[in-house]
Specification:
Its EC number is 2.6.1.42. By secondary structure, this protein is α+β, with helices and mostly antiparallel strands. The protein folds into two domains: about 130 residues, 2-Layer Sandwich (D-amino Acid Aminotransferase, Chain A, domain 1); about 170 residues, D-amino Acid Aminotransferase, subunit A, domain 2 (D-amino Acid Aminotransferase, Chain A, domain 2). It contains seven helices and 19 strands. The strands form two sheets. Strands 1, 2, 3, 4, 5, 6, 7, 8, 9 and 19 form a ten-stranded antiparallel beta sheet that branches. Helix 2 packs across helix 3 and helix 5 packs across helix 7. The radius of gyration is 20 Å and the shape is globular. It binds pyridoxal-5'-phosphate. The site of pyridoxal-5'-phosphate has 13 residues, from strand 13 and helix 5.
Length: about 350
């Protein structure tokens, strides 16, 4: 997963939050502790059979110096869906939110001042030591955070490589939830994208291998027409597309900016032809970590093509600016997406 800006996926803040679940006790109250390694039984179920789900959300430094979480309820709800899919107990949304607030309150000083943010990583794994193939009877919830760098510089554009022979997700599978097992199987294709001089993999639908679904672990958008009459297009959610909070937010913001948000699948062939004809002017990927990243180049087995003029387009940059504006308190927040966290 590209993390955008100057990201340090291993520079963790001083604290973490932990809670445990057993059938007898349910969830314990999430507790704040110093960030430290955790004891682990060699037969822990999560390690062997992948009963592991996670989330990713951010806390931003606001214009007035305070810190606010961005749409944390959406992540809490999705965490519950992910857990249910892997036959894991739900962490109540209120415990999820309390954990996020406790960590941000304690470590808010680590949110960089220059438009930086804290990336929060909630994780739940089966911690029962037992090698029987059945859902575990003990679970651990952890929440940790690291600082990511300023995002107000230029958005770096990326090139993407189309994968035709592997699938990120399959119908009836787990592609629409954030379970740990979804990610390592994408790394081989990611390495191949790199060999082709590209930054991310484009995933096609796994049945017809015709429709464009996601880029790496990010949602994909396309722009038809110019800023005056732009249509901002993204495929509809299926069980092979992760319901991204950033995607949903950008569809709303596209309308606010006077663009037409369109939920419609786009084929690889359309992508190529419409870039050649000029009908498609921009493309971008998005997600919590990467925010909005312009996609300016596509590498396919039948040849490469450039999107628009090969540089980040105005609609992409306006959407990115609008999203960062709400997240950082620079723009109004009529939908109540930001959740202020008082310092501890
Ligand atoms: C997390 C994720 C996204 C982005 O979701 P956000 O809620 O916007 O961060 C997109 N695709 C996949 C596969 C993901 O795992």
């Amino acid at each position: 997963m590209g993390l955008g800006g100057t990201a340090y996926g291993n520079a963790f803040t001083p604290h973490m939050v932990t809670a445990r679940w057993t059938p007898e006790t349910g969830w314990t109250e999430p507790g704040l502790t110093p960030f430290a390694p955790i004891p682990m039984h060699p037969a822990m179920v999560g390690l062997h059979y992948g009963q592991v789900v996670f989330e990713g959300l951010k806390a931003h430094r606001m214009r007035d110096g305070s810190v606010a979480l961005f749409r944390p309820r959406e992540n809490a709800r999705r965490f519950g869906h992910s857990a249910a899919r892997l036959a894991m107990p739900a962490l109540p949304d209120d415990l999820f939110l309390a954990a996020a607030e406790a960590l941000v309150a304690a470590d808010g000083a680590h949110v960089p001042e220059d438009g930086g943010s804290l990336y929060l990583r909630p994780l739940m794994f089966a911690s029962e030591p037992d090698l029987m193939l059945r859902p575990a009877r003990e679970y651990t919830f952890l929440l940790m955070a690291f600082a990511t760098g300023g995002l107000f510089g230029d958005a770096d554009s990326i090139g993407v490589w189309v994968c035709h022979d592997q699938s990120r997700a399959v119908p009836g599978g787990t592609g629409a939830v954030k379970c740990a097992g979804n990610y390592a199987p994408t790394y081989q294709a990611q390495l191949r994208a790199r060999e082709h001089g590209c930054d991310q993999v484009v995933w096609l639908d796994p049945v017809e291998r015709r429709w464009v679904e996601e880029a790496g672990a990010m949602s994909l958008f396309f722009v038809r027409g110019g800023p005056g009459a732009a249509r901002v297009v993204t495929p509809g959610l299926t069980d092979t597309i992760l319901p991204s909070v950033t995607r949903a937010s950008l569809l709303d913001l596209a309308g606010d900016l006077g663009y037409e948000p369109v939920v419609e699948r786009v084929s690889l062939e359309q992508w190529r032809k419409e870039c050649a004809s000029g009908e498609m002017t921009e493309a971008f990927s998005c997600g919590t970590a990467a925010v909005v990243t312009p996609v300016t180049r596509v590498c396919d087995r039948d040849g490469d093509w450039v999107v628009g003029d090969g540089t980040p387009g105005p609609v992409t940059l306006a959407l990115r600016d609008a999203l960062l504006g709400v997240q950082t308190g620079r723009a109004p927040d009529p939908r109540g997406w930001t959740r202020p966290v008082p310092a501890a």
